[in-house]
Write a structure and sequence with these properties.
- With about 180 residues, the protein is α/β, with parallel strands linked by helices.
- It has one domain (about 1-135, about 150-180).
- It is about 30% helix and about 15% strand.
- It has a four-stranded parallel sheet with strand order 2-3-1-4.
- Strand 2 (about 85-90), helix 4 and strand 3 (about 125-130) form a beta-alpha-beta unit.
- Helix 1 (about 1-15) crosses helix 4 (about 105-115) and helix 2 (about 45-55) packs across helix 3.
- The mean pLDDT is about 90.
Length: about 180
């Protein structure tokens, strides 16, 4: 499986275009991910959401922040990239543990399957950042017997480009889609 995840990571890096330095996705990069079995995960809303964004993005100059359930975010970003509307950037530091608070099996499936949809490397008129809306999921009454690894995390302002970098990259508008 290591060769498959490496190829997928290369495709996601290419899809990020000039924004590839912001890509973070240990699920495709660390050796421990090879032991994880991907589970089918398709979001029926991904195509509709990408189609809804497409007319706006044809004007260029947008950063689309996809703060959604990560499978949905990955699928929307891949579709926007496949339409050559936006570079797709993964900001998903969800660490891959076989048993974790934030599961990775479905996300791995989306990352691998959607990587085949991505356009070759090129600068596009917009950029879509995928962040994980589940990153801070509360764990209520966790027992001492719970052996799951805590792979939740927080994002800081340094995890995203600053305003000067965004403007230098042609971004003039921000659209945030949140899970709510």
């Amino acid at each position: 499986m290591r060769a498959i995840t490496r190829r997928a990571w290369s495709r996601w890096q290419a899809a990020a275009g000039p924004w590839k330095g912001w890509n973070v996705c240990p699920l495709l990069c660390v050796p421990g991910a090879d032991d994880i079995e991907a589970q089918r995960a398709e979001s029926p809303h991904a195509a509709a959401l990408a189609a809804e964004l497409a007319p706006t993005l044809r004007h260029g100059g947008f950063l689309v922040l996809l703060d959604l359930e990560p499978n949905l975010g990955v699928q929307v970003a891949a579709r926007l990239n496949g339409l050559r509307l936006a570079n797709a950037v993964l900001l998903l530091p969800r660490w891959p543990y076989a048993e974790a608070i934030l599961p990775v099996e479905r996300l791995l499936y989306s990352l691998l399957s959607e990587s085949r949809r991505l356009a070759p490397e090129q600068p596009l008129p917009n950029v879509a950042f995928v962040v994980d809306a589940e990153r801070g999921r509360p764990v209520i009454r966790r027992s001492a017997m719970d052996r799951r690894a805590d792979n939740r995390y927080r994002l800081s302002p340094a995890d995203l480009p600053n305003l000067a970098t965004l403007r230098a990259g042609g971004v003039r508008h921000v659209v945030k889609l949140s899970a709510a």
